[in-house]
Amino acid sequence: MKFATIPDGSKDGRLVVVSRDLSRMAPAEAVPTMQALMERFDEVSGALLQQYDAVNRGDGEAFDPSSAHAPLPRAWQWLDGSAFDSHGALMDKVFNMEGKFKPDFPYMYQGVSDRFYGPCEDVKFPTEDDFIDFEGEFGIITDSVPLGTTAEKARGHIKLIVQINDWSLRRIAPLEMKAGFGWVRAKPACAMAPVAVTPDELGDAWRDARVDLPLNVWWNGAKFGAASGYAMSVGFDELVAHAAYSRDLVAGTVIGSGTVSNETYREVGSSCIAERRGIEMIDEGEAKTSFMQFGDRVKMEVFDPDGTSIFGRIEQTVVKA
Amino acid sequence: MKFATIPDGSKDGRLVVVSRDLSRMAPAEAVPTMQALMERFDEVSGALLQQYDAVNRGDGEAFDPSSAHAPLPRAWQWLDGSAFDSHGALMDKVFNMEGKFKPDFPYMYQGVSDRFYGPCEDVKFPTEDDFIDFEGEFGIITDSVPLGTTAEKARGHIKLIVQINDWSLRRIAPLEMKAGFGWVRAKPACAMAPVAVTPDELGDAWRDARVDLPLNVWWNGAKFGAASGYAMSVGFDELVAHAAYSRDLVAGTVIGSGTVSNETYREVGSSCIAERRGIEMIDEGEAKTSFMQFGDRVKMEVFDPDGTSIFGRIEQTVVKA
Q1: How many structural domains are present in chain B?
Q2: Residue A111: closest CA among chain B residues belongs to which residue?
Q3: Are the beta carbons of B265 and B90 closer than 8 angstroms?
Q4: Which residues of B touch A177 (CB under 8 A)?
Q5: Rounded to the nearest 5°, which phi and psi values hold at B132?
Q6: What residues in B contact A175, CB-CB < 8 Å?
Q7: What is the pLDDT of residues B193-234, one digit of tens each?
Q8: How would you write the pLDDT of chain B (321 residues) with one tens digit per residue?
Q9: Do A98 and A53 reside in the same domain of the chain?
Q10: Which of B12, B37, B63 is the C-terminal boundary of a domain?
Q11: What angle do CA A165, B243, B109 make, to 5 degrees?
Q12: CA dist., res. B307 & res. A95, Å (int)
């Protein structure tokens, strides 16, 4: 199944069931919002599947992904991992943090979740001098997960998969990281692609609780990267279990993969600018690519093997606050 | 004014106006919940003040602080500072992190906010081996704060003051801190004292955007500390401005002071066990006080000069999850 949230004047918007090809939609009859869906997922999924079949047959009305909200416009909890080792190694290079402490548990921080930008919303920053960067990620949304849930059991709590742009300020990020408290100023609100999908929509590409598909990224129209989501050192199941070690996870918890990155970054490219700068430092002795300027655009999209957009497109412009 | 939230079967509970001496209450007529109050504070405060005067004159019904929810039972955002330098110095001692990077900005992390424990709820943990600790704090709740708000303007956005118990797992805390991503497993849900108060309720004790009153803490009935909230290196106004640097703060954002601590800790005691262990390491060469065991109780309460409880009492028991 595929879901989106369309504007209705409220903060939470209106949940719609979206056809596989993203062309049609119908308001979800069983639940009004994505948050309500996550609270009642197993109970209402049968009825929603019937609606999904209907929109796939052409029922409903036209769906405009570019005008949608984030599928979950606000969440009670957003926990972001950093599960791609090649990204971590390049960041250590960029931030001059090689030799730092490597934990034997997954990296994870809690970020701002009272707002997720819609897929085509402008994103505002105080100044270009903070080194504005995008980060292409995959994420999952859980139903209610009890404290102490194992990775094996966590798989059943992964109800939806989403695609995320985790906006980052690279001047501030290493300073906040060195302070040890995680990121507040360096991590403003993220954006989500317009459509959230159930794991079965990915077919064989949902493998080992990872998304085995390239995340395509363009910066100002030029292709920037197409790294695969499969290279996570820990799967989303392990990220859920990690998060649930000492807390119940509220229904609608969003957990991110961290910036999608592959060891073959010289061939596949990157999902953030900082990583390209790290590669330049290794290959050319210094970082040459600048961060974003006001007016710059970033686009992110994921396709299934027949070329259909799975989550719809993120396409955002950076503007001055 | 003073406010609390009483159980009504919903997650957000029912907002009540509470008399100054915490004996009487009346359901708030203008807004149903604390979240709604924070979204409409300036608009409805006049009407609520009339209700407050009435309960102070004996109107309404009896208020039982021990059965209340947290004043804000769930928040879209909880940002905790660490503004007491003597606490930071003792933690560096305990965690063997002396010489670590000291930022020129306030410490702050984002923590779990989809649930705040009520003042007398048991708190569950996976194991005693994680070194269970309490942390007595003051906190504030803001209305909507725009990105870029200065510390001076932030003062007007501090609508309510609360008292918080920030539960912490000390085995995990230094590891997560060294990893640089802040705390997820080491910081389960916090508790709040039953009553939130407007700054004017503190009179002269609300000074420089700090609470100039001792936070009394008892562990299993024995007095543990009474450190003053005034010794913050930055006030709550500066914490709000820090948080709002690159994000709009949603109405109902809760910001914590960090563990209340004074340089005179040998006289006034401490607001967490880890700090007492740090003092023992300095004074006696080794930490002697153990962390909490299942069945242990912690109590926290703040009084005004005439002995009236300002926020009501936190009194929690630690239990096995």
Answers
A1: 2
A2: B110
A3: yes
A4: 180-181
A5: -75, 135
A6: 103, 105
A7: 999 999 999 999 999 999 999 999 999 999 999 999 999 999
A8: 999 999 999 999 999 999 999 999 999 999 999 999 999 999 999 999 999 999 999 999 999 999 999 999 999 999 999 999 999 999 888 888 887 888 999 999 999 999 999 999 999 999 999 999 999 999 999 999 999 999 999 999 999 999 999 999 999 999 999 999 999 999 999 999 999 999 999 999 999 999 999 999 999 999 999 999 999 999 999 999 999 999 999 999 999 999 999 999 999 999 999 999 999 999 999 999 999 999 999 999 999 999 999 999 999 999 999
A9: no
A10: B63
A11: 75
A12: 52
Closest CA to A239 of B185, B112, B189, B116: B185
Alpha carbon B132 to chain centroid distance? 17
Amino acid at position A273, single letter: I
Whether B105 and chain A come into contact, CB under 8 Å, resolves to: yes
The Cα–Cα gap between A20 and B105 comes to 47
Contact (Cβ atoms closer than 8 angstroms) between residue A191 and residue A167: yes
Is B247 in the A-facing interface, judged by CB distances under 8 Å? yes
Give me the phi and psi of A238, to 5 degrees please.
Answer: -70, -30
In order of A287, A309, B73, the CA distances from A306 in angstroms are 37, 9, 47
Co-location of B282 and B179 in the same domain: yes
Tell me the angle at which helices A273-284 and A85-94 cross, rounded to the nearest 10 degrees.
70
Shared-domain flag, residues B84 and B143: yes
- Say which residue the tokens 């090649």 belong to: A86
Look at residue A210 and give its three-state secondary structure: strand
Complex ipTM over 0.95: yes
Q: Are residues B149 and B249 in the same domain?
A: yes
Regarding predicted confidence, which is higher, A93 or A216? A216
- Could you tell me the CA-to-CA distances from B225 to A86, A129, A208 in Å, in that order? 47, 44, 50
Closest CA to B80 of B243, B217, B317: B243
Q: How far is A59 from chain B (nearest CA, A)?
A: 36
Q: Same domain, yes or no, for A229 and A313? A: yes
Domain span at residue B215? 72-320
Indicate whether A57 and A131 sit together in one domain.
Answer: no
B300: CATH: 3.90.850.10
B148 touching chain A per CB within 8 A? yes
Q: Where among B46, B63, B80 does a domain terminate? A: B63
User: Do B166 and B46 share a domain, yes or no?
Assistant: no
- For A139, A160, A205, B242, the CA distances from A211, given in Å and listed in that order, are 9, 12, 6, 36
Return residues 209-238 of A near B (CB < 8 Å).
none
- Mark whether A87 and A51 lie in a shared domain: no
CB-CB neighbors (< 8 A) of B102 in chain A: 179
